[in-house]
Amino acid sequence: MYDFVAYLKKYKDEGTNIELAAPRLLDLADARVLLVNMDNPVDVRKGVDEVVRVVNAVWGTALDETTVRDALKNGLPPC
Predict the structure, then answer these.
(1) Most Cβ neighbours (<10 Å): which of 7, 34, 46, 55?
(2) Which residue range forms the structural domain that includes residue 61?
(3) What's the whole-number mean pLDDT along residues 4-15?
(4) In a domain, 79, yes or no
(5) pLDDT tens per residue across span 13-65
(6) How far apart are the C-alpha atoms of 40 and 12, rounded to whole Å?
(7) pTM above 0.70, yes or no
(8) CB 39, CB 47: distance < 8 Å
(9) Is residue 59 part of a domain?
């Protein structure tokens, strides 16, 4: 997921409109979503935790599980 979000940021930095991705990340940030690592099926993580981790790592933001959904409702973070 990190690679995908880094890809999004790269294209956003270049001026490409990739705002269609924000609603998908918002969907993954729902507290009811669980992500399963198919290489290690016992590695199950909450979607919101992964979205927070990856968006913060790529964009350098300081979102948490209570602020990430509101932030993504406004689109991806600025470049």
Answers:
(1) 55
(2) 2-73
(3) 95
(4) no
(5) 999 999 999 999 999 999 899 999 999 999 999 999 999 999 999 999 999 99
(6) 32
(7) yes
(8) no
(9) yes
Could you give the 3-state DSSP secondary structure of residue 51?
Answer: helix
pLDDT band at 78 (very low <50, low <70, confident <90, very high): confident
In a domain, 46, yes or no: yes
Written as one string, the DSSP assignment of 2-15 is HHHHHHHHHHHHTT
Sign (positive or negative) of CA dihedral 24, 42, 46, 4? negative
Q: What long-range pairs does 38-41 form, CB within 8 A, spacing at least 24?
A: none
What the block records as the tokens of 49 is 């935790």
Report the number of distinct structural domains present in the chain: 1
State the pairing for strand pair 34-36/44-46. antiparallel
The verdict on residue 78 lying in a domain is no
* Contact assessment for residue 13 and residue 66, using Cβ atoms and an 8 Å cutoff: no
Q: Which 3 state secondary structure label does DSSP give 28?
A: helix
